[in-house]
Amino acid sequence: MATVHSTADSTALLTDHYELTMLEAALAAGTAGRRSVFELFPRRLPEGRRYGVVAGVGRALEAIDAFRFDSDTLAALDGVVDEPTLGWLADFRFSGDVWGYAEGELYFPHSPLLVVEASFAEAVLLETVLLSIYNHDSAVASAASRMTLAAGGRPCIEMGSRRTHEEAAVAAARAAYVAGFEATSNLAARHRYGVPSTGTSAHSFTLLHDTEEQAFRAQVASLGKGTTLLVDTYDVTEAVRLGVEVAGTSLGAVRLDSGDLGVLAVQVREQLDSLGAGTTRIIVTSDLDEHAIAALAAAPVDGYGVGTELVTGSGHPTCGFVYKLVAREGTDGELMSVAKKSVDKVSIGGRKYALRRRSTRGVAQAEVIGIGTAPVDDGDDRMLLTPLVRDGEIVGREPLSAARDRHAAARAELPLEAQSMAKGEAVIPTVFE
Amino acid sequence: MATVHSTADSTALLTDHYELTMLEAALAAGTAGRRSVFELFPRRLPEGRRYGVVAGVGRALEAIDAFRFDSDTLAALDGVVDEPTLGWLADFRFSGDVWGYAEGELYFPHSPLLVVEASFAEAVLLETVLLSIYNHDSAVASAASRMTLAAGGRPCIEMGSRRTHEEAAVAAARAAYVAGFEATSNLAARHRYGVPSTGTSAHSFTLLHDTEEQAFRAQVASLGKGTTLLVDTYDVTEAVRLGVEVAGTSLGAVRLDSGDLGVLAVQVREQLDSLGAGTTRIIVTSDLDEHAIAALAAAPVDGYGVGTELVTGSGHPTCGFVYKLVAREGTDGELMSVAKKSVDKVSIGGRKYALRRRSTRGVAQAEVIGIGTAPVDDGDDRMLLTPLVRDGEIVGREPLSAARDRHAAARAELPLEAQSMAKGEAVIPTVFE
C-alpha cells in the first residue's frame, strides 16, 4: 500500500522552521531552559461576530502527545539545526503544564484559551501546531454554532468535505459536531471520532440509470424506504410523485439541492401531504450559510445540509489566534511579565486567569480576565481554565459528547442578543481585573 | 509513540458516506459496472479573478494510489454498507483512466481539469477526495500566483502554517511553491515535497532575553551574520542600529512585522545605507495580501512573508470545483452524454477536450473546449489534457519543479491584463467548439 506521508505518526514537523532555529540559538546562549509562560488568545472576534467557540482541544492534546522526534524526523531536520540541537530533540517529550478553556466553551476578545508553562525550549516548539489546530477548528465551530442557532431545533448535517483539504475536512466534521451539528457525510470523522455519518445520493446516481424510476427503485431496494431521495435531477414535482410511488408513504425524506428552496419546500410539502406522505421529511442543501438557514425558518424544512460555508468558517476561515510569551524567568529566578511594544499589535504581559461572570439567574455578563491572579467568583460565576496537561501528562482527555454538551450549555447562558445573525459587537464585554 | 490517526496510509475514508451507499445500491441493481466518464471542473472563476491555477495534481495521484480498503478500513465501514459491498471493496484498486490539466497550468470557467473514465463504481468512489485536494490546493495556488505577480521579481515566502489546519498547511506550502513562492516556513513541506524552508525569529525570542542586544547576539552567534533579525519588538531605529553593531554590515536581513510597512521600509533602508549595510535586505510581514504587496512596489522592500491571506485563498478559500457524470454506457453499450437539468446548476454533458488557443506570437487568446471530439490545433495552440492514470497505473508523476516551471510559462502567455489586481472578467474567454 502506498504511503501518503511518512511521518504521520509524529506531529513534530507540522512546525515552522524558526521554532527550531530559535531553539538552537537559545540552547547555545544558555537561555533555552528559562521557565516561560506562553498564552494562546484572540485579539478580537471575527468582524461582526457576537461570540466564538473553542474547538480542537482534544486534537491539540493528541498533537502534544505525538510531538516526538524519531529517527526519520531527525533526519528531516538535517541542515535546519546543528548537531547539539538534534541531540536535544532526540530526547524531547513535553514535560510542562497546560491549562485551557475546555472544548466547546465560548470565547471573547483576549480570552486566554491556552496557558502553556514550560521551559522556553519546550513551549516554543509547540507554537505552530497548536495555533494550526485551534485556528482551524475554532473557526469552523464558531460558524457551525451560528448555523445550529439559526436552525432552531432542526438538524444540521455537515457535508463540506469536498470543499476543503481532505484532512481539514475530518477536523471540520468534528468541530461542527461539537457546535451542535447532528451528523456528517465524512467517513473518517465517523471512524476516528465517532461522529454519526449519513448520506443521501448524488445526481450522478440518477443519471447512471436509464430512468429516474430505475434509480429510485435501486436506491430504495438497497437502502430501504427510510432513505432520502434526491428529487431535483429533472422535474421536482414528477420526482416527488415517483418517489412516493416507489417507496410508499413511509419514504424517509426528499432532498432539494437547487432552485428557490423556500418556495420549493412549500410546494413539495403540500404535494407530499396530498399524497399521504405526511411524515416524509424535506432536506435542503445548496450553498447554505447561517443567513440562508435563518431565512428558511418559516419554510416547511426538516433539515439542512451545509457544506462550503461551514468548512470555510462562513467568511472567517481562521480565527487569528496568536501564541505569545507573556512571562518568563528573570535573572532572579522569578517569573516576570513581558510584552511586545509594537503599536498595532498590542499584547498584555503576565499570566492570565479567566471566569465567566454570571447573573444570579445564570445569564453571562462578562468575560473577566485576571492578570497575575485569578478573578474572584461572585458566587454565580464559572471558572474557565482547566488543567489539560500536568508535568507532561495529558489529563484533559474527554469524550467528544462532553464538549458538545458543554457548548450547548455555555451558549444557553448567553444574553438573547447572541442569537442575532446581524453583525454586532461581542455579546458580553471583556473585563480585566 | 502516539498515533494521531490510524488509517493515515489509506485515503479511502476521506470520503463521503453517500459514495459508498450509492455503490451498494448500484451493485445490487447491476448498474455499478457501467462505463462512466466523470469530469472535475469549475463553473466559474472566483468573483473578480482573471484566471485560476491548477494545483494538487501530484497529491491527487498519490491519493488515488492509496485509495485501498485494508482490514481496518473495512471494519470502519461496518454499518455503512452491506456484506457484498464490503467484499467488493476488499479487492478495490482503481483500474480506469484519468486525463487532466497538468499541475501549475491555468484554468478558466468550464476547463475540464480532470476526466475520469472507469466503471461507475470505481469513478464515483474517488469523487470526494479528488474534489478536496483540487478545491484546496488550487485555491491556494490561485491566490499565490497573484501575489508573486504583484511582487514582481521580489521573493515571496509562505508563512501561513499557523493560520490553517496543520495538514492543509503542508499542502498550502506545496501549492504556493508551484505558483512561484520561493520558500516556506513549513518543515513538513520541506520534508515531503522538497520545498525550500526558511525562517527568521519571533518576538518571543527577543523577549526571552534580558536585552534586545543579548537576543541579537545569541541569534547571530548561532545562525550567522546572514540571518534575519526581527527589529520591531521595541524601537525599530534602535534595533536596526543594534543589529548592524552586532552582526556588522554583512547582516543578512531585517524583518518588519508591524506598523506602516511602506514608511518604515524607506526609513530603515536609509538607516541601513547610512550605516554602510547597503546589502542588508528588508523583509516585510504582517497580514499581507496581493493588494498590500502591490502597494509596496515602490518601497525598498526585498521580500514578502505571506501568511493568513495565502493559506485562506485571499478571500476565496475554495474553488467550487464539482465532479459530475457527463457520459455513461447506455443499454446499447455505447457511451451517451448525460446532464442534470436543474435551472441554476447547469452541467454540460459529454466528454470534453481542451486546448489553449494562442496567437502566432504565443499570446493566449481563448480556452477552447471540444465536446465529444478534440478541438483542432491552429498551429500555435497547446493541448491541455495529459494522461495521468492509464489502466489504473499512475503515469503522470513529475517533480514539483516541473509544475513550478509550467506555471511560470503558462502565466507568461497571458495577455497583459492578467497582471491587474483589480476585479475583472476572465482574461481569456471560454469557447465551446
UniProtKB/TrEMBL annotation, chains A, B:
Residues 13-134 form the Nicotinate phosphoribosyltransferase N-terminal domain. One of its GO terms (molecular function) is nicotinate phosphoribosyltransferase activity. It comes from Nocardioides terrae. It is an enzyme of class 6 (ligase). Keywords: Glycosyltransferase, Ligase, Phosphoprotein, Pyridine nucleotide biosynthesis, Transferase. GO terms for biological process: NAD+ biosynthetic process via the salvage pathway. GO terms for cellular component: cytosol. Transiently phosphorylated on a His residue during the reaction cycle. Phosphorylation strongly increases the affinity for substrates and increases the rate of nicotinate D-ribonucleotide production. Dephosphorylation regenerates the low-affinity form of the enzyme, leading to product release. Pfam families: NAPRTase, NAPRTase_N. The keyword Glycosyltransferase applies. InterPro entries: Aldolase_TIM, N/Namide_PRibTrfase, NAPRTase_N, Nic_PRibTrfase-Fam, Nic_PRibTrfase_pncB, Nicotinate_pribotase-like_C. PANTHER family: NICOTINATE PHOSPHORIBOSYLTRANSFERASE, NICOTINATE PHOSPHORIBOSYLTRANSFERASE PNCB1. Catalyzes the first step in the biosynthesis of NAD from nicotinic acid, the ATP-dependent synthesis of beta-nicotinate D-ribonucleotide from nicotinate and 5-phospho-D-ribose 1-phosphate. Residues 157-347 form the Nicotinate/nicotinamide phosphoribosyltransferase domain. This is Nicotinate phosphoribosyltransferase. Its EC number is 6.3.4.21. Pathway: Cofactor biosynthesis; NAD(+) biosynthesis; nicotinate D-ribonucleotide from nicotinate: step 1/1.
